[in-house]
Amino acid sequence: MDALVATGVHGFNGHSLAVFLHVALFAYWLGGDVGVYYASRYIIKSEVGPEARAVATKIMHATDIAPRVSLVLILPSGITLMAEGPLGDEFFVHGWWLVLVWAASLAWLTVSVIDYRGGDTPIARLSQKADLLVRYALSAGLVAVGLYTIAATDPFGVDTNPKWLGAKVTAYALCIFCGVMIRRQLVPFGPAFGKLLTSGSTPEVEQAILGSIRRCEPWVYSIWTLVLVAAFLGVVKPGSTAF
């Protein structure tokens, strides 16, 4: 949402298309995440039958594709908008850099979708490892870039006070990290839910399912907060001297 308040944007052009994509991805990310959370409320209800809870699990998994895709594509769409500003003058004077960013992001999206589809095939296992590696690397690297942008006087030679952008990049990086932590907390969920469907409900199974979902909740709330913070920063651009 880097350019929602930019002046002189009228009609259909590359800039307006980039803004539209960025806003749409934001909406699908947050909206899809809320849908996943709502479905999870039925999964932890022990009084609901296993069949109904299995349907809720399928709904949760199906809805998760929206935030998964949005998280990946927010990065190149944001960089596309950034390329039109002062920072873009320094790093994107040649269009092939932007092409490279989109190509790498689409490759990451492909790996992420393969991981989403699951399965116990060599390519599925490789995709899961590759997706996690990308997420760890991006969360660490982007936090470093964001903090540098906040701390430096003229980060990357830009003198328009882009500290808001550094904060936004940091928020996005932390969202990626929170998503990784959610995956870690869900590790016990699959085996426990499998036992629920095959052997029925037991206190141990219910505790494993409930505990796994509950441990995810702080990370989910953090993502919602960080996404809203990033959206606010992209719209308001506090402190920026670029007009």
Polypeptide structure, described:
- The chain is an all-alpha fold and 243 residues long.
- The chain has nine helices and no strands.
- Helix 1 packs antiparallel against helix 2, helix 1 packs antiparallel against helix 3 and helix 8 packs across helix 9.
- The longest helix is centred in the last third of the chain and has 34 residues.
- The N terminus is likely disordered.
Largest sheet: none
Q: Assign an overall shape.
A: elongated
Provide the succession of SSEs.
Answer: HHHHHHHHH
State the helicity in percent bands.
Answer: over 70%
Distance between the termini: 16 Å
- The total count of strands amounts to 0
Radius of gyration equals: 20 Å
Transmembrane segments: 20-44, 65-83, 95-113, 133-152, 164-182, 219-236
Organism: Nocardioides hankookensis
Protein name: DUF2269 family protein
Keywords: Membrane, Transmembrane, Transmembrane helix
